Amino acid sequence: MNTRAIYLFAGVGILYVLTGVLLSWNVSLNILILGLLSAIMALGVNMQWGYAGLFSTGIVGSIALGGLAVVFVSGNPVPEAFAAGGWQAISGLAVAVAGIAAAVAAWTYMSPGRARNLAVAVILIGGFFLYRGIFDPAVERIEAFDPATHGNVGGFGLNSIWAWPVGGVFAAVAAWAIGKIALGLREDYLAIATLGIAEIVITAIKSEDWMSRGVKNLVGLPRPWPVPYEVDMQADPGFLAFCANWGLNPTTTSTLAVKGIYIVMFAIVLGLLIWLLQRALNSPWGRMMRAIRDNEVSAAAMGKDVKRQHLIIFILGSAVVGMSGAMYVSMLGQLVPGEYTPLRFTFLIWIMVIVGGSGNNWGSVLGGLLVGWLWLIVDNAGPLIMGAATAGMADGALKSHLVDVAPQLRLLTLGVALLLVLRFSPRGLLPEK
Amino acid sequence: MDLLNALVAFLNFVVIPAASYGAQLAVGALGVTLIFGILRFSNFAWGDTMAFGTMVVILFTWLFQSLGISIAPLPTALLALPFAILITSALLLGTDRVVYRFYRKQKAKPIILVIVSAGVMFVMNGLVRIIIGTEEQNFADGGRFLISAGDFKAWTGLAEGLAIKGTTAVTLVTALLTMAALFWFLQKTRTGKSMRAFSDNEDLALLSGINPDRVVQVTWVIAAALAVIAGTLYGLDKSFRPFIYFSLLLPIFAAAVVGGLGSPMGAVAGGFVVAFSEIVVTYAWKKVITYVVPQAWAPDSLMQLLSTDYKFAVSFSILIIVLLFMPNGLFNKGK
Amino acid sequence: MSDPFLIGEAMTGGYGATDILHDCTIAVEKGQIAVIVGPNGAGKSTAMKAVFGMLNLRGGSVRLNGADITKLSPQDRVALGMAFVPQTHNIFTSMTVEENLEMGAFLRRDDIKATLEQVYHLFPILKTKRHQPAGELSGGQRQQVAVGRALMTQPQVLMLDEPTAGVSPIVMDELFDRIIEVARSGISILMVEQNARQALNIADKGYVLVQGANRYTDTGAALLADPDVRRSFLGG
User: Fold this and answer.
1) Is the pLDDT of residue B123 over 90?
2) What is the ipTM of this complex?
3) pTM surpassing 0.90?
4) Residues 152-211 of C with CB under 8 A from B
5) HSE on the CB side for A89, CA within 13 Å?
6) Total tally of structural domains belonging to chain B
7) What are phi and psi of B74, to 5 degrees?
8) For residue B156, which of B311, B307, B309, B9 has the smallest C-alpha distance?
9) Which of A187, B32, B153, C51 has its CA at a distance of 20 to 30 angstroms from the CA of residue C232?
């Protein structure tokens, strides 16, 4: 790392310290946790953009899928619901997948013409109705079971740390499907297509109550090992003694400690990722990827299978993002589909990648920590600042309106920040070497 | 068998809403396709441009209403259109001058412009929320129904009613007029033809003495008009919420791609294709089917292919199918 | 007066850092046909593009009718009476034949009907297909549209970059006949051609370029008769 990077990271560190001192350490550590998560998401996106030049707007979808993994892996089992329709629902889904596979096979292996078109149409239409016939009644029964508390198919009840890699796998599978369809298209078509996929994923999570209770939200997901619960800590005599010894307030200390443990865990994951990515970047494979990105035509002429390499990168990047989505939900302990909006996740992460420095892993980390801080600080400090700024104004509709919309200012400022960076410093704060 | 009632239900619940929605999408897609054909990038800020334009219309509508100006039974919003178009044009021209022009001069890759437009999207989104807030706004005044369901049933004695909302009629007429005006402009005027030439072959257009700056400016002004009109028609019909326009991006892009990016004719066709597909696939056919088939076969379930939550899945699927099999769209052969 | 009608004199330059043209001179008199030939990569198209202002010259100048136009952009030169027909992508494929011609006359504010008729007289097939999209025409017809478009400004100089590239021999002959007709009406023609023999046949002046510099300059007939030229470039 060079001096410029050190100064920038130190600067960001100071921001967090100031937040802790001026606002509260709780707020500062909370922002830091989310900042670290954003950094991981930015790393995933940077893989796709920095290594392969792929502009995907489906990041929020990968994050949501990661969250879904936590629901399935760690959610409380609901045996009654599962017995009511679990296996049938699964077989319905299997029918759907088989139908699509059969249609694709028919398209690939039959020769073009009437027969092929007819075959594919019959398979798709027939398959669709068959799938609905099996799937719908099963789902109805699952959702009918105690909808107030459940109405979903339940999970395996395992510790949520197991969900982290599973989240990556979920996102990877979806990325494989989208990649097969959408890669190889013109760049802005990929952007539009990934936008659509993310919309569908989020809609599915919102509407398919049998999966994760949809907009009724699923709460009560267990924390990942080894994070303790504050109440448990506060009841533990050893901990209380420790606090008494050092003159610390047990309640505050327990919350700070829990946050501290999350920070350490997430930082370890982040560190591992960076180490892996840096090694990959400097390996022959990494050089090949950048060669492809910089001159696709020559690379293809040299026999490199560009589409396949792009697909690999796309899947890996999405997997990283998916894993971070699982980490997020495991920390929150709940899945709230309503918060997964493209603005907050997809496009904000893009700003992190570009402002931080596209193509540079440390840049993504910096971007994640810095822009994440900017975004979240407004939630906390925004109304305060706006209140102070409008203190001189007469009370009235305009003043209260301004204070109300203070959080929206961050959209403006971040948009302007992105535009400024793209115009004057397009390689970002930490440019690619 | 009650074909007449089936037909009326079909018209009332499928054809008329789809035509109205299709008209709104068509006008929106025209803007996207124009920007793509001439400025050569997919404008991700388009949804929020529509939101901005509609917001200005709402503000002027409130102004006129407070001044007691009205054109009943037409909605007051129509009066506000020219003012909103003026202001939105200024915004777009300003954005072009300050943001996009730099990259055009540099001949930057289209994907860079897409990312830049995402930044513009943030700014516009923030602006709209700050100015008008985030709640839903209903600004449709004027006659509610051209024909109400009750009147229709009284005239015809049928069980099914056919209602034509005032906003539907306004949408169809305004959209039609807008499309006709645009096509006349592109086909018959010197400036319009120069824009088509520029979109077709930029280098040759420059060689022919066509002024690129002029073409770009006219494009942004027309785009502003289309954004305002499409956004207002949609907002009159449903209601205005700042976030709703971002989610319209997908069907609008789908419509433009289906018709062939860069082809105005295609955008219009695409708009209706997407609208009809969305509604046909998510409509509960139980009622119509019950009228058509014998009593014994009447269905129990709703007979809905996909729930209405998934209407974006329909636009998206259409988009994917077109991109896979006909990437140039219906109207662009070998571009 | 000694200055030819259009002259690019001692042109040195290229598209970027490296020079493609070295001290190259190309000129054409009023109503004459000047042809630029040479081996591949000789800089023929580059020389003509330099005369049209499509690249920056490090050295040399371009003069039209005595006036120095070296600093003018291509669009400005169009306004002064120069017309350029590129080798490829030289028509608006999605617009009709007539619209293509209208676009050619974009800079003119007067009534273009007379010029339109002249072009239709020169290329009768275009009149029949005037409302057809230009992209649907055959290769030779598209070239006619391209040339017709350029003629709509009533230029004083018509510059053609390999007009017969990719067309059949019959169409090539027809095209050359038309070019002669155009020259006879008083318009100077500057033409880059790969089909050196046929081109020199109709040329009043020929320029043989090698590696961006003039090698042989003479009348078309003289060059055709020159044994050195024949051996090197015309296959004996």
Assistant:
1) yes
2) 0.86
3) no
4) 153
5) 21
6) 1
7) -80, 150
8) B9
9) C51
